What we know:
Bound molecules: iron/sulfur cluster
Helix content: 25-40%
Strand content: 15-25%
Number of strands: 19
Amino acid sequence: xxxxxxxxxxxxxxxxxxxxxxxxxxxxxxxxxxxxxxxxxxxxxxxxxxxxxxxxxxxxxxxxxxxxxxxxxxxxxxxxxxxxxxxxxxxxxxxxxxxxxxxxxxxxxxxxxxxxxxxxxxxxxxxxxxxxxxxxxxxxxxxxxxxxxxxxxxxxxxxxxxxxxxxxxxxxxxxxxxxxxxxxxxxxxxxxxxxxxxxxxxxxxxxxxxxxxxxxxxxxxxxxxxxxxxxxxxxxxxxxxxxxxxxxxxxxxxxxxxxxxxxxxxxxxxxxxxxxxxxxxxxxxxxxxxxxxxxxxxxxxxxxxxxxxxxxxxxxxxxxxxxxxxxxxxxxxxxxxxxxxxxxxxxxxxxxxxxxxxxxxxxxxxxxxxxxxxxxxxxxxxxxxxxxxxxxxxxxxxxxxxxxxxxxxxxxxxxxxxxxxxxxxxxxxxxxxxxxxxxxxxxxxxxxxx
Length: 450
Ligand code: SF4
């Protein structure tokens, strides 16, 4: 069988990164090797994100750069998958005629046959058919060689927040069977993975639809029982579906990391209603209090949109007040942008770009102060760290995460890669910590190194 080189560019969320890994796993038996050099590849796949206008612009600018490569190598096959593919379908061929294949979110697992067809028939294919079942092959984490991994437990969403394209581009919510998920995690652990992050648009509603006799807290208990797995995280958690049982599971299961990403989006009830979020600020804060009571030192992070249509200064002030009250560990903040199909696109009372920008900067400054204060408070403390890899900024340093999901860089031997260590926090920065190892932990026994 001829050997092929595939280059994959991933834009967007962790779920897209997970899907890109699935592409690699599916194509490996067809003699496709992954390359990091697009110029060498005879297959280029772009896994796209449509959640914000900026991410979509990135897709077409990347495709524009591929035009020259296609002219130089007419046999090169270019495929576009993910949310933009689902949303735009054949229109992608009009904007980028050098693209050979468009495969939507539900066509991901038909990728090998679609590529073979394009190669054999030398004609363009667009497959954006939605299916009512999860046609997910059991790839069981094959070939993964690292310390942390994502595992998608469900796909799609039924919530229809008015600003969001996910229900339109990823389809309605479907959960994967718990036995398949557990098998995948076990296989990852056998391949060296120590920490998994369970992924879904709203993991809290895992198993609520279909015939899955397992809810999310029960799934966490099953994952917690896997030998060799050290840490469990999950994202994203919709506040309206955060149950007492889930809080109890995070508090009581030893492998659960004390961190929850709980997107609030706005601190104004009026805006939350227009967003169709299904909770009020009071409900949200009640759940935050429960989390803080049940899980000592819990880290809470969030997503916030500024400048949603109709957002007044008063609404924005309410968001700032909520950020201060919750005392988030960090937030992802975004300026609102119109998205195709999203109902809010039709709302008339848009906020100007100038005001959006000012609000975004104000919010970011506030959160930076909070994060810095929290990071500074950790100096001198010792924290468990899972060593994940080399620091991007200094290859001589290793990098990992604390249980609360803070990035910490440490000067240490390469042999600590994949180990749990106890590290003393020496310095705090805006986005990360610096530390030194005081003890190597469970994975290789309790060897003291300093
Ligand atoms: S919960 Fe709302 S924001 Fe999240 S994916 Fe579903 S529709 Fe989009």
